[in-house]
Design brief:
The structure is a homotetramer of 271-residue chains. Chain A is built from 9 helices and 10 strands. Chain A has 271 residues and is α/β, with parallel strands linked by helices. In chain A, α1 links the parallel β3 and β4. At the C-D interface, α5 of C face α5 of D. Chains A, B, C, D: GO terms for molecular function: 3-deoxy-7-phosphoheptulonate synthase activity.
Chain lengths: 271, 271, 271, 271
């Protein structure tokens, strides 16, 4: 079997830049924000709080892939505009999900990084489109994707000409129902051994339970992750979607301080 | 929770017509053909043989969703043209997979039914597009989709205005590795109890092993399926993809004769 | 890798006799009864009704493996005595579960067949003990056992000297939560191809939903199963355990009449 | 639903003592040794090396639960004697697996802690026996056990009168085949929130790949684990079983030094 471009054997590790941030370097990147973009004022308020505690990048859903057609589908383009405005105001880069290959071109005016959600990891039409553009991609693992399938999904983008791909482990679907998904940190350890791309972890979807997010954030970093993407809200109980897994700004602050300590250890290890 | 349009409680069972065929009636529909469309002569030859043994409808992949970007991706538009020509020649309706929402409009000139593959069951942009057109849809179950998610994917199409949806069970992803997937016939029995849409079964992908296809075809019909979609080839060992699960025309003939016997029993039951 | 004794290649198919019944012959064996033995009068009443509709063998749990130590653990020895008495009264053979290797010897005075439950398929101490005795064994598949592990569990018994093993598919644990388990009929088709032992199906545990039991019973027989084990009760709603999956005597009668029709087809096929 | 004795709400956290060691305190416990006990000289040699690098407790399999009856089943009683002798020589406590309820009494003369393996987590006859004795138990999670089932298995022992139970996460069975199992650290975080018992992690079985063991060991501790059980060998490539997941003494030394650093952080957090 031929090597993939994303295999360690095919070259040096790839660092993915998003404005001034670098995924895959010694600094761990913390992305946070609400599940859905709700309105400008709230988004700005959250962003300002997040910036204060050291969050480097904003997330917020504008196009929401929802299981039922009757569920809230996100603010769509209106949401993108809000994200863009808040990004300009706070000078924080943003990442948001795009689901339709027809929206890729347009979205580049609004976001610094395009997220491919778990449901679209096998959407090869979308992946091919993303291989043609020059924007960093956050590629979430499919909910039942093997490691091999996930890396080959990344290969669709990289072989198309865009090597700016950051992988994101977000939990897989198993028989366990206590947690929303089973966060598979084995995959993170494996990626650091065999793949050139950076990988971050989403402990919010990976657990579905806010009380497990702090421990699993630290575990992710210890497993080798290059960063975290965490759902947070000023008022977690009132967020429009996924409130059960959303944490407060204060809880996130504690996580960041734990991550900093782990960075210290890792840095020592490498020195 | 509101009822879905596809729930039994919301109305009579939906029969889906594809030319003269009717999914969801007393006759079981057998769809067959090779995994990929390879060339016109071979496709025609296979189609003629299939028609002789009682196959009512043709399948053949033109756009192939492949795990690796380096695998054969199908003949694409060339494949559609071949399917159309063979369909005209044999007077058999055809079904083929479309993956990109931008291809939906165009494909309607070439195919009688559009298949949504397992990897795209959660591709809501595609589903929404299919809700707007007037063409029958074959909606395969996602490889790790729950019954509830699958029915809601159908609801995306039906609520968009297109109620011509046939469900297709094709196996789910489990720990078992002896078979390619675990064919979940519980889902078929459940759909017949709670959903208005017809459901067929794909025992080729559902087992991945040609020697299991005959027994599982009969089991599917006994579980209540309205038809079968089976990969066959004049020369199974030489098919371009999925050869391990492709059966011969002769083996398919035996299956069809078994299905006819089961139809007899079922018809009696209902009389 | 050496062949197993249970592999087709190692000899003729094994027919397992339980008194006058023969598992693995042309006649399909129907085993039924309540989840738990509750008391003598009720057990006798159920047995008489079951015999009338053509059930050949009785089941009833005396030692119940329960997830919680605080759940009803069965009548234990008292239950065995009741089974024995009802068996004598109705002349029907019985099967019941034994969990402890220390109970094997004793249980042979009370039951015609010993069931190894799903939770004990990997209990090699128990399997070894059962290899030493001369009593037919019903070996249920572990809830997450691969086909290969299951056949090797049977091999523990057969290689110990007792080849009277009937396999029982009862569903595996997957992400799907609509049904209690995912009934894996692929395993039945595979066993008929590669293994010398008879195999039956338990659609009660395999679905967990009584409304799915009829269709899945027929599907099991069509997939090649040599029989069925089904939970039934005179008053399903009032059974002490598993009431949601227990069917009425009347529903069972309909299933048996469907099975007889399928036997007709299968018999013709073989003639 | 009644609270379980093992629930946080039912009382203070339980610290489990094995000789001078305390599971559930501030010190993380490292257990290590070969998969199987092979002979006295080798076991002693390994033990001495392990003690030097800070391992506090020895593991070694005497009774090995093997999928095939033809695989090496361990040295059995001979293995227990070797463990006992090495333990006396090195003053290190030992843990070993017992599978048969009839062996429990006898084994107490040879081991400081009894391990219930993954395959026997649902073996309620064994669990009940272990509830009656006064010896610490290491209860591994069943390979497809939900968190709830696992805690109830512990409850069988605790409600029987023996509250000295340490839980051990060792990976669950999923569709992912790159790793032997999917290590579910969510379960560790959840146990620390809701259960009174200590929990350790087995990254050897949890990954099946020695190159992933270091990262996953640190991740386990960061997730909240009270210790680790790791397969190691002087000559990993030559170990009689599980060699692919066995690490060298040197690699283990590095892990222990990483764990010490994490202890520093955790200690600070609590101070």
């Amino acid at each position: 079997m031929r090597n993939l471009l994303v295999d360690k054997k095919s070259g040096d590790d790839i660092k993915v830049k998003v404005r001034d941030l670098k995924f895959g370097g010694t600094e761990k990147i913390i992305i946070s924000g609400p599940c859905s973009v709700e309105n400008y004022d709230l988004m700005l308020k959250i962003a300002i709080e997040l910036k204060k505690i050291g969050v480097q990048m904003l997330r917020g859903g504008a196009f929401k892939p929802r299981t039922s057609p009757y569920d809230f589908q996100g603010l769509q383009f209106e949401g993108l505009k809000i994200l863009k405005a808040v990004s300009r105001e706070t000078q924080m880069p943003v990442v948001t999900e795009i689901m339709d290959p027809r929206d890729v071109e347009m979205s580049m005016d609004f976001t610094d990084m395009i997220q491919v959600g778990s449901r679209n990891m096998y959407n090869y039409s979308l992946l091919k489109e993303l291989g043609k553009v020059n924007v960093p991609i956050l590629l979430k693992r499919g909910m039942s994707a093997t490691l091999s399938e996930w890396l080959k999904a990344a290969e669709y983008i990289v072989s198309g000409g865009n090597e700016n791909v950051v992988l994101c482990e977000r939990g897989i679907r198993t028989f366990e129902s206590y947690t929303r998904n089973t966060l598979d940190l084995n995959s993170v350890a494996a990626i650091k051994k065999k793949c050139r791309l950076p990988v971050i972890v989403d402990p919010s979807h990976g657990t579905g339970l806010r009380e497990l997010v702090p421990n699993m954030s630290l575990a992710s970093i210890a497993a080798g992750a290059d960063g975290l993407i965490i759902e947070s809200h000023i008022s977690p109980e009132n967020s429009l979607s996924d409130s059960r897994q959303t944490i407060s700004i204060e809880a996130l602050g504690n996580i960041i301080s734990g991550v900093k300590k782990l960075e210290g250890i890792f840095y020592e290890d490498k020195a």
